[in-house]
Design goal:
single chain, alpha+beta, Nuclear Transport Factor 2, Chain: A, six-stranded mixed beta sheet, 3 helices
């Protein structure tokens, strides 16, 4: 049986790993490095259908389906930066509030959008994630 101090240390290591992985995922996205982002996804990752703006009508299951979806969006949107405002980490789950600033590639229109992102990890990899964005960014003028 591990001591309370040992359990706390393990928890801190897990929290640091999760926060570092989430930060790296958003760095990859901002740099247009979809392949780098995909390295952090578990083979059985799921991305639920959670709003019209995602373009997902049914949950995506598996690294390949999610990767295809991310590549499609990377071709449509240039994510200039994601500012991470707040992290909440509890065990294998993380919630992030962020603001994304980007540009639509088809129109050149810039956008700024707040998101709440939910992640679940297993063995250091993302097994589930979902993003809930403020769809008002669609109406922002360049």
């Amino acid at each position: 049986m591990l001591s309370e101090q040992a359990l706390r240390l393990i928890g801190n290591i897990d929290r640091e790993l999760i926060e570092a992985r989430v930060r790296r995922v958003f760095e990859c996205w901002a740099q247009g490095d979809v392949d780098g982002l995909i390295e952090y996804l578990a083979p059985d990752v799921t991305f639920p259908a959670n709003g019209f703006w995602t373009g997902v009508k049914a949950p995506l299951v598996g690294r390949e389906q999610v990767a295809e979806h991310l590549r499609k969006y990377a071709n449509m949107l240039e994510n200039i930066v994601s500012v991470l405002h707040e992290f909440l980490i509890d065990g294998d789950r993380a919630v992030v509030h962020r603001t994304a600033v980007g540009r639509r590639r088809d129109t050149g229109r810039r956008y700024q959008c707040d998101f709440i992102d939910f992640f679940r990890f297993r063995d250091g990899l993302i097994v589930e994630f979902s993003a809930y964005g403020d769809a008002a960014w669609i109406e922002i003028d360049p």
